[in-house]
Amino acid sequence: MRCFCFVMLLLFTAPLSGCLETLEPITADEEGQCAVLDAGRTSDGVLRILTYDIAAFSDEMISTFTNQTGYDVEMIRVDDSGGILEQLLQTQQAQQADLAIGLDNTYLQTALNFCLLQPHELNLTGLSETALEPYDGPNAVPFDRGDVCLNYDESRVDGTNLTEPTSLWNLTEPAWEGQTVFPSPVTSSPGRAFMSATVDYFENDEDNTTDAFDWWKAMAENGAIFTSGWTEAYEIHYSGGYGAWVEGHLGDAALTVSYCHSPGVEAFYGENWTQSTSLTLERSTFHQVEYAGIINGGTELEAANAFIAYLLSEEVNRNMPENNLMQSVLDNATWPETNGYAYHTDSPSLNAEITNERIAEEMEGWISDWKTATQ
Amino acid sequence: MSIEWKARFAGVPLIHWLAVIFVIGLGLFPITLALVRLWAVTGITPLEALISVNEQPGAMDAFRFSLFEATVSTGLTVVIGLPLAWAFGRYQWRNIRLKRALLFLPFVTPPVVAAVGFLALISPGGVLYNIGFDLRSESGVVGWLAAKTGWEHPGHFIALVTAHVWFNLSLMIRFVEPVVAQVNPVWEEQLALLPSGQTRLGRIQHLWRPVLGPATLVAATYTFFFSFTSFALVKWLAPSSNTMESLLGEIGGTAGIPGYRTETSLAVLAIATFQMLLMLVMLILAGRFERRHSQVLSMHHETMNRERHGPASRRWVLFVNGILVLLLAPLATVVLSSFRVRTVNGAGVSSDWTLEGWRRAWNGDFSTTPLLEALTNSLSYAFVSLLVALPLGYAVASSLVTLRQRGHQRAAGVLDSLCMLPLSMSAVMVGLGMVAGILQWFPQMFSFPYLPAVPHIMLVLPFVIRLMVPAIERIDPVYGEQASLLPMGKVGFWWHTRGAFLVVPATMAASLCLAFSMGEFGATFLVVRVGSWDSLSILVDQVASRPKFDPYVFPTAMALATILMVVTLLVLSINESARAWRSRHDV
After folding, report:
1. Which pTM was predicted?
2. CA atoms lying within 13 Å on the CB side of residue A268
C-alpha cells in the first residue's frame, strides 16, 4: 500500500515541478509600446467576439453583418466589462477571440497597459468629441456611452419622508439609514464608475479633511446595502425601478447607482410612466464610454475591422438607445422621444473629471480602501 | 517487487488500473494545478493561505452561513425525509414507480430551474405570498420575526433551507427506503416477543435505529455536503448572503492572473483550501458510513415485505401525497410563469397571459445563444460525459470490487476515496481548477469544443462508480465459474458473466449522467467565462439575470427553464423505464 501511495504521489507531483515559476504577464515597455503577438489560434474564417450580454447583438444584426461581409461570427460571452478584461488577461498567451467589445473606460487603460489590444485600421469619422474624450488612440474605438449617476424613487423622496440630496453627505444622515444600495466596485462596472466619481467629488468639495472613503465608511455605517452587481441593486433592492414588478423584488432602498438615462428607459417600456429620476450633483456622475478593440493575438483581423466599421455605421449605432439602452457615439446623437425616453433622461451639468491613466494607476488602491471602509 | 505486490494487481486487468489512475488523475490534476498556480501568483503556500482564511473579506461570514444553513437543512431533511422513506418503503403504494420518479425529480432538476421556481412561489402573486407568508420582502409574520429577533433576512434563510430540503429529500428516499423495504420481518417478530420490543420507543431503539441509522447518516452527510456547497440556490434565494461556494464563484474569475488583483488570488487560495479540507473530512465520514450501510442491504424480498404490511393508512397516504404536491409546486410555478407577463403604467400593475416569452425563447430574440444551439450544446456535453464516464466508471467499480473480493479492503477503501475526490471539491472548485489550472498551462484546450464536458465527467464519475460497485458486488461468482466451462470468446464470456447483469444499473447510471450534466451549473458557470460554450442552464441564468426593463425577459427565462426541465424529465423517464424493466425481468 505504501508503495502504491508513493507511486501515486510521484505521478501527480512530478509534472508540477516546473509550475511554481511565475508566468510573467506581457506589459507595455517604458515608452508605452507593445509588441504585436502571434495569433493565438489557427485561422478558420470565423470572427470570434469576446463580449458580455450586449442586447444590441441580436441574431438579426449579426446575420446582416454576415450577409454584407461574408464573415461568420461567433460570440464568446462573459458576465460584464470586468469579465472581458479578466478573460483577456487569462488568455493573454493564447488569445482565442479576435475582437473585444464592451470594455469601458474604467478598464480600458489596464487592458492597454497589459498590451491586450492592437491598433485598428479604420479611418474614423463622425464620432462625437464627448465619446472620444476619455480615449482617442488607435487601440480602441468607442461604440456606446452613458452617464453613471444616482437614481432615486420619487415616491419615497417626496420632500416629506426623504428630501432630495443636495450633497452626497446628506445620504449619511439618519433619515437615509438603510435606504441606499450600491453595486460593489470590486465586481460591478457601474459600481466602479460611481466609486471613481466619488473620488473626484470629494477631492473637489469644500471640505479638505475628508475624502471619498470617509464618505463610503459613513455610508456603510448608515446601513447602505452593497451588492455584487448592478442587477441585484437595481432589480432586487431599488424601489423606484422595474424591479417592483419582477419576482424576487425587495424594494428596501430608495436610491441606487444606475445611469442618468435609466428613468428614460423605464418610461420607454412603461408607456411614458416612471417614478424613478436621476440625481445629477456636480462631479458625482461619471461619463462611461464602452469600447471595441482588436485583440492583440487575435486571428481574423480583417473581419474584426469590418465589424467595428459595421458597429459604428448609422444603421446600427444610431439605434443604440432602443437596442442597447445606451447613447450612440455618433455626432449629434439624441435620445428618442418615444414614450418620454428623452423627457425622463437627465444630462449631468459636470461629470467627474478623472483620467483613464489615473484610474488604471490607482484603482486597485481605491478598491482596497473601499473594502476597508465598507467592511 | 514483492509477490504481494504482484498479487494485488493480478486480479485487476491493466486497462482497469489505467482507468483508476486516469480517474484519480482527472480529479486531482486540475485542482492541484489551480492551487499551484495560485501559489505561484501570490507567492504564498496553500498552508499559509489557510492560516489567513479568517482575514479574507467575507470568508468567515460565508463559513458561518454555510455551516448554519447546511446544519438546519440537514436536520429538516432528516425530520421530513425519514418518516417519508419509512412509509414509502414499508407499505404497498399505487403507482409506486411514478411516485418514486416524482420524489426523485427535484434531485435531478437543474438548480437554476429550482431557484427560479421558488422565486416565483415566494414573490408577490406566488402561492406562499398570497397566503401571507412573505419570505422575499419579509413583511407580515416574517417581518415580525425579523424585528423581534434582530435576525437579518430570516425569510431568505427559510426560503433557502426549504429549497435545500426540497432538493435533498430524494437522498433520504434513495438511501433509506430500500433498507426499510428489505428489512427481514423475522427481526421485528422476534423483537415483539421480547420486553424491549413492547413499546414504540423500544422498537426504535433496538431495531430501527441500528438498521436505519447508517443509511440515514449517509443521506444526512450527502445532504449536508450539497447544502454546504450550494451555489445557484444561494445566488437567487439569499442575495444578501454567501456560502463559501458562492463566494468562490463570485471572485473566482479574477484568480490566478499574474500581476492583477493578487489579493483576490490569495482570497481564493485561502477559501478554496479551507473548503477542500472541510469537504475532505465530510468525504471520509460519508465513505465510512456508506461502507457500514452497504452491509445492511439485501436482507429480504421487497415485494413480500410490502404485501405483508398491506396498503398505507389514510394518514400516511395524506402525508406522502402532500409531500409530492409540495415537491411539484415550484416546478409547476416555473411553467405557469412562462405564460404570465406583468406590465405597469400610470394606471397600476396588470398581469396578463402571453405566449410572447415562448416566442422569444424559441426565436432567440435576445443577444444570448439561440435556444437550439444551447440545447445542442447541453445534449452534446451530456452525451460526451456519458460516453466517457460510463466505461470509466465501470472499470473503476470493477477494480474496486475485485480488490475487495480478494481481501484488499484497505487499498480498495483508499482508491474509493480518491475516486470520490471531485465530489469533495464541489462544482465551483472543479471549474476553478479548469480555469486557473489546466487552461493556464495548456491554453490549446481553449479550442477544444467539448471543454465543459470535462468538469461534467469529473462530477458524474463518483455517482457512476457509486451505482456500479453494489451492482457488480451482487453478481454471483458461480456464473463466471459455469461460463468458463462453456466454449465462448472473451466478449461472450464478459457479457454472460457480467454485462447482462449490468444493463439496468448502467442505464440508470447513464440517465443520472445525462440529467446531472444537463443541469450542472457551478463548474459550467466558471468555464463558460473562457469559451463560447453556453449550455441551456447557463442560458436560463443569462436571460433571467438580464435587466428586466422589458417585461418579457422573465417569461422568456421561464420558458427556457421549462424546456430545460422537460428535457431533463425525458431523460429521467428513461431511468424509470430501466427500473421498470428490471422489475419485470428481475435480473
Report:
1. 0.79
2. 21
